[in-house]
């Protein structure tokens, strides 16, 4: 594809997405331009990925067909103000921030603009992310397909209604953090039982990945898959009983409700 892709902000999420885009060869590094306030990090990333860099966000805006806003949510307003005039009417803004609705972004630009609201996650770094997307009314069918192909280089792409975005933040945008905590806790427990740390991470992570794959590939209910592991009078049901007693499910549900509520306030 000969589209020019721009990223404003070159942090964790931008690098995860760029990695997938470049690896897929859908867009070459020479057609990607990235800006960041922190020069050393930007130069290190150019070294690694070979894309163009600038410290001028307006340069990214005026030279890109698709512009990813990859700064923290609290920077959105000031960055949009900064680039609004330099952004062409036919360019597409891709938002990746929680809480920033299509209406808020359109209003911040103060002009008729094409916007795609998305919520990606960091597993994009290994090509295994999932990204929710929702276009505003100015994006054409062809543009929507083009955007899906770009985002598809680093993740599954799921179109959803905008009102579900806070739920998406809690179930996929933020959820890798809780999964990492779960893996870390399982590894700690294995270490406590004598297993070397590196092996413990491998066993825990592979088990989480395999279990996730079983859900996606068998499409069986998670409860049925759990029951397949729990032998009568066996070891697993002992662990399950302790998790229930300690409020494992309630903790997850309450954590995700806090996450979604925070997203709605941002
Ligand atoms: N990290 C994650 O797991 C996910 C993050 N997001 C969203 O992605 C966005 C970026 O998050 P991260 O990559 O995690 O943050 P980050 O802090 O790693 O990256 C932000 C980058 O923006 C740069 N920056 C700050 N002010 C700037 C300015 N005025 N102009 C240009 N660059 C500037 C910073 O130097 C930094 O490199 C946020 O809106 C976040 O909510 C969305 C989904 C997942
Ligand atoms: O913690 C955050 O605000 C961002 C949004 C989703 C994941 N990280």
TrEMBL record:
<protein>
    <recommendedName>
        <fullName>Pyrroline-5-carboxylate reductase</fullName>
        <ecNumber>1.5.1.2</ecNumber>
    </recommendedName>
</protein>
<feature type="domain" description="Pyrroline-5-carboxylate reductase catalytic N-terminal">
    <location>
        <begin position="4"/>
        <end position="98"/>
    </location>
</feature>
<keyword id="KW-0521">NADP</keyword>
<dbReference type="InterPro" id="IPR028939">
    <property type="entry name" value="P5C_Rdtase_cat_N"/>
</dbReference>
<dbReference type="InterPro" id="IPR036291">
    <property type="entry name" value="NAD(P)-bd_dom_sf"/>
</dbReference>
<keyword id="KW-0028">Amino-acid biosynthesis</keyword>
<dbReference type="GO" id="GO:0004735">
    <property type="term" value="F:pyrroline-5-carboxylate reductase activity"/>
</dbReference>
<keyword id="KW-0560">Oxidoreductase</keyword>
<feature type="domain" description="Pyrroline-5-carboxylate reductase dimerisation">
    <location>
        <begin position="162"/>
        <end position="266"/>
    </location>
</feature>
<dbReference type="InterPro" id="IPR008927">
    <property type="entry name" value="6-PGluconate_DH-like_C_sf"/>
</dbReference>
<dbReference type="InterPro" id="IPR029036">
    <property type="entry name" value="P5CR_dimer"/>
</dbReference>
<dbReference type="InterPro" id="IPR000304">
    <property type="entry name" value="Pyrroline-COOH_reductase"/>
</dbReference>
<dbReference type="Pfam" id="PF14748">
    <property type="entry name" value="P5CR_dimer"/>
</dbReference>
<keyword id="KW-0641">Proline biosynthesis</keyword>
<comment type="pathway">
    <text>Amino-acid biosynthesis; L-proline biosynthesis; L-proline from L-glutamate 5-semialdehyde: step 1/1.</text>
</comment>
<keyword id="KW-0963">Cytoplasm</keyword>
<comment type="similarity">
    <text>Belongs to the pyrroline-5-carboxylate reductase family.</text>
</comment>
<dbReference type="Pfam" id="PF03807">
    <property type="entry name" value="F420_oxidored"/>
</dbReference>
<dbReference type="InterPro" id="IPR053790">
    <property type="entry name" value="P5CR-like_CS"/>
</dbReference>
<comment type="function">
    <text>Catalyzes the reduction of 1-pyrroline-5-carboxylate (PCA) to L-proline.</text>
</comment>
């Amino acid at each position: 594809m000969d589209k020019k892709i721009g990223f404003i902000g070159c942090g964790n999420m931008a690098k995860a997405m760029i990695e997938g885009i470049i690896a897929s060869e859908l867009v070459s590094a020479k057609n990607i331009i990235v800006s960041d306030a922190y020069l050393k990090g930007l130069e290190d990333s150019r070294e690694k990925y070979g894309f163009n860099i600038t410290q001028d966000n307006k340069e990214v805006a005026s030279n890109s067909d698709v512009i990813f806003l990859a700064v923290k949510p609290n920077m959105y307003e000031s960055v949009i103000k900064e680039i609004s005039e330099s952004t062409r009417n036919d360019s597409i803004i891709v938002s990746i921030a929680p809480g920033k609705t299509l209406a808020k972004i359109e209003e911040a630009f103060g002009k008729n603009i094409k916007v795609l609201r998305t919520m990606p996650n960091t597993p994009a770094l290994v090509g295994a992310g999932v990204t929710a997307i929702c276009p505003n009314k100015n994006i054409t069918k062809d543009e929507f397909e083009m955007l899906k192909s770009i985002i598809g280089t680093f993740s599954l792409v799921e179109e959803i209604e905008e009102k579900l975005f806070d739920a998406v933040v809690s179930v996929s945008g933020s959820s890798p953090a809780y999964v990492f905590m779960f893996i870390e806790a399982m590894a700690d427990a294995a270490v406590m039982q004598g297993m070397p740390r590196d092996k413990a991470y491998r066993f825990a992570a592979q088990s989480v990945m395999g279990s996730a794959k079983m859900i996606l590939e068998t499409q069986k209910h998670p409860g049925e898959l759990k029951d397949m592991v729990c032998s009568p009078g066996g070891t697993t049901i002992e662990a399950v009983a302790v998790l229930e007693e300690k409020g494992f499910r309630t903790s997850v549900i309450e954590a995700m409700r806090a996450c979604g509520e925070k997203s709605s306030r941002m």
